[in-house]
Specification:
homodimer; alpha+beta; Gyrase A, domain 2; Alpha-Beta Plaits; 6-stranded mixed beta sheet; 6-stranded antiparallel beta barrel; globular
């Protein structure tokens, strides 16, 4: 059961460049993300999921606003704001590059695109990280411009996505490697095309660089995909959880650090350059973490509940953590979820109690993710 | 006509401490504001408006998150982030104290509360100004802690609000001056009670300091107000526009500066202390502004449209600006709105054309606000 209410479209919140298309093609529920309306349901979460697996799907993710850093000191600043060693990133390449605070807590978890040696985008999740980067930079005297450019991503997801993208943009799409991108202009529309997205299905992300042309771009893709089972969709909770992908605000928060949520691999403490949170992360690494994010499988038949907020998790009556996102996976015929709990209990196979408003549920802790291979 | 869709209650977005009460008492539409659900309609915008004028109303404004600044350098930092001269503020007093960027553009437009010489709250509109203040402070070496405390405001609005507040909290409420506040504990609930709010009606704001007690506080007030025509309400577009109050995100944006939107009075360029944007504001003051926000009255009978986004405004076919918020005022029997337009056309009495999806409307520019006196 999803608890819902009404949302009013008003000028206080921005529309995505694809807004009219999403309404035209049947968006039935919205959230607000980075001060912008974002469709989150078309036919229903499970029908949208099936549609994707049977063809190709367009996702309006215009809410992923970019922090653009340009100028002679762009590389220095980009490095200062993320624990990843961005020297490892080539022009035309993207990296998952979280932004942390001085205590190592998450400010945001963007993907970074390196457009040139002096030009970067950080493609944001839901927080005004532009304010953070501008604030931090104000004290450092870097020679770099920091702004939110007119860039609005659209994701193309599903088994037929490569065919659709090749038809529209050319055969080079077949050779585009994962987390690589290219700048192109098509039908007068400037954009950056990357192979990446918010699932482990085959997917692409188009970074539209002219907000007035969102609906034109949508229709070009729609027209070309008519015989490929094209449907409208949205970043889908089921795909996300199956793939072990985290959502900032739902599964990880400012009070979490990368070690707690399985993102150790993107911290490079050995690099020479300083970055925000380096000292704090060194100490956390030395002392060990107190909490850990795990997967869990909830016993019983298909869940009929949807959690409106994080739910308490306990073992033998003692609270040990909280359940974050949860969903029924049709592919695995399992109820799956994320739990953050005290590290001493974060053991695969352990059984915990989840306290829902409708009663307690048993869940068994498992390693993440459920889907390990990328399509 | 309001265009609406569905909103799903999910753990990615926070609930206010008053959420259950607002659902219980009939909240019928929500927005998301500072990563939190916020009710914006109960019985309907006009019925909610009438209800307030006939009694007393509770508004869940828990979304007004606080930036708390504490410590030996709290005053220095508080002064650095706002153009108002905060030396004018006494302990127990509040001031409207916008946060600007280095170009003089709006980051946020909070009300500042001075709790002690080393303790301030900035009660935010909708942007992650916490990240801005923390980022800016990181380069300055101030000895101050900056955080988001467990503080969630509730507004008590309407002609019977003084009676209700006195009944519950005591006779001292009668003597509480405008923009003054006091810290109290009532029924074990810690809070700050201020005389202020988001209208020109008689109003109070309770800054609840324990998020677990929101519904308890709501019920205490409800019980005491049963014979005072108590109703649930929300920050109301009609009251707001009548009073000339601006909404950050709707009527003013990062690209606007205080001179453009009639907030010159809160800039103190003569103060000795430096603040962010001081130099930029000095230059804007010298050179004059290019755009100006005005009120406008739209001709014809009661509007049947509601603008989903800003609308183009023109004079004799030339685009001169944009209409921001618009609403029908039952009190004045007029369609009223805000327009930001090129300063050379910002002349009282001038007639402009507003381009709506349903056709053009004529509007006459007027001085703000429509309601000048505070109740």
């Amino acid at each position: 059961m999803y608890q819902t209410s009404k949302i009013v479209i008003s000028p206080r919140v921005r529309k995505s460049p694809y807004f009219d298309s999403t309404m035209k093609y049947g968006a039935s529920a919205f959230t607000i993300y980075n001060h912008m309306y974002m469709p989150i349901v078309f036919e229903g979460p499970e029908k949208d999921y099936e549609n994707l697996l049977n063809g190709v799907q367009l996702w309006d993710v215009g809410v992923e606003r970019q922090v653009e850093i340009k100028g002679p000191d762009a590389s220095k600043l980009a490095q200062y704001i993320t624990p990843r060693d961005i020297n490892k990133c080539k022009i035309g390449q993207a990296l998952y590059a979280p932004l942390l605070d001085f205590e190592g807590g998450f400010i945001n978890d963007p993907v970074m695109l390196k457009l040139a040696d002096d030009h970067y985008w950080f493609s944001l999740s839901d927080s005004d990280a532009l304010l953070w980067v501008q604030g931090v930079a104000s004290g450092k005297g870097y020679d770099a411009e920091i702004s939110e450019p007119d860039v609005s991503p659209l994701q193309i997801q599903g088994p037929n996505s490569t065919e659709l993208m090749s038809r529209v943009f050319g055969e080079w799409i077949d050779d585009l490697a994962f987390y690589k991108f290219r700048e192109v202009t098509h039908s007068g529309i400037p954009m950056v095309i990357a192979r990446m997205g918010y699932s482990r299905e085959r997917c692409y992300e188009i970074f539209l660089q002219d907000g007035s042309k969102g609906n034109q771009l949508w229709e070009i893709l729609w027209e070309a995909g008519k015989d490929l089972n094209i449907t409208p969709g949205t970043p889908n909770q089921i795909f996300r959880l199956e793939a072990g992908i985290l959502s900032f605000g739902a599964d990880m928060h400012r009070e979490n650090n990368p070690f707690e949520v399985g993102l150790d691999w993107m911290i490079d403490l050995e690099q020479e350059d300083d970055f925000i949170g380096k000292e704090a992360l060194r100490i956390i690494k030395e002392n060990g973490i107190e909490k850990k994010l795990m997967g869990a499988e909830i016993a019983g038949s298909k869940m009929e509940f949807f959690n409106e907020e994080n739910l308490d998790v306990s073992i033998e009556g003692d609270r040990v953590g909280a359940m974050m996102s949860a969903v029924y996976s049709p592919r695995f015929e399992k109820n799956i979820c994320y739990i953050i709990l005290d590290v001493e209990h974060a053991i695969t196979g352990k059984v915990v109690d989840i306290h829902t408003p409708d009663g307690d549920l048993k869940a068994e802790l498992v390693e993440l993710p459920w889907i390990k291979e990328r399509a």
